[in-house]
Amino acid sequence: MTVRALFLALAAALVVAGCSAGSDDTDTRPAGETESPSLASAAPPRPGICPLTLPNERTPHGQANAGMNHGNGRLWTTMWPHNVLIASGSYILPDGSVWMKWPWWRSVRGRLSVTGRRLDADAPALTADIPSGYGNRGFQPSGLTFPTEGCWRITGAVGDARLTFVTLVLKAERYWPKAEPAEP
């Protein structure tokens, strides 16, 4: 079995195993309602299991549905294929962390903040770079830096609006070494 085939089998197994766990902590409460228990207080996933969030295909008004959209009527994002981020090249920083652009849309006014923590092992929290100049509503790009590979819970917030999801972060070079020739 080639490294590529092994990686695809591993990714598929993680996706299938994670999908059954259900992890969407999408906040759809009207403003002022009390917060329900958070997934942050839930038991951590079993080793080797990442409870990936499946995109609900909800989109901001006027935006095309790409099939990987996820939102709750107040905040939206677009997920990577199968909700697995596979980084390579310049997206892997010299310190080994993974950096990736991540889009958001806001129907509520305010400044976006993004937090995240790894679920399957101890790791520093992710950091988010959220540039100014995009106004208080609508599209807002962000740059997320994941200190390590692994299973990550990410929460975007504007005021009392929250959108939480779980994604898997991997480095392609770990599974597809540069020295391996491409298959026909």
Tags for this entry?
Immunoglobulin-like, 9 strands, four-stranded mixed beta sheet, mainly beta
CATH class descriptor: Mainly Beta
Structural class: mainly beta
Q: List low-pLDDT spans.
A: 1-43
What's the number of domains? 1
Adjacency order of strands in the biggest sheet: 1-2-4-7-6
What would you say this structure looks like, in words?
By secondary structure, the protein is mainly beta. It has a single domain (3-24, 51-175), classed as Immunoglobulin-like (Sandwich), CATH 2.60.40.10. 11% of the residues lie in helices and 32% in strands. The chain contains 2 helices and 9 strands, in the order H-E-E-E-E-E-E-E-E-E-H. It has helices at residues 3-19, 172-175, and strands at 69-71, 75-78, 84-87, 98-106, 113-118, 127-129, 138-146, 150-158, 161-171. The strands form 2 sheets. The protein has a 5-stranded antiparallel β-sheet with strand order 1-2-4-7-6, with no helix packed on it. Strand 1 and strand 2 form a beta hairpin. The longest helix has 17 residues, at 3-19. The chain is globular, with a radius of gyration of 17 Å. Residues 1-43 have low confidence and may be disordered.
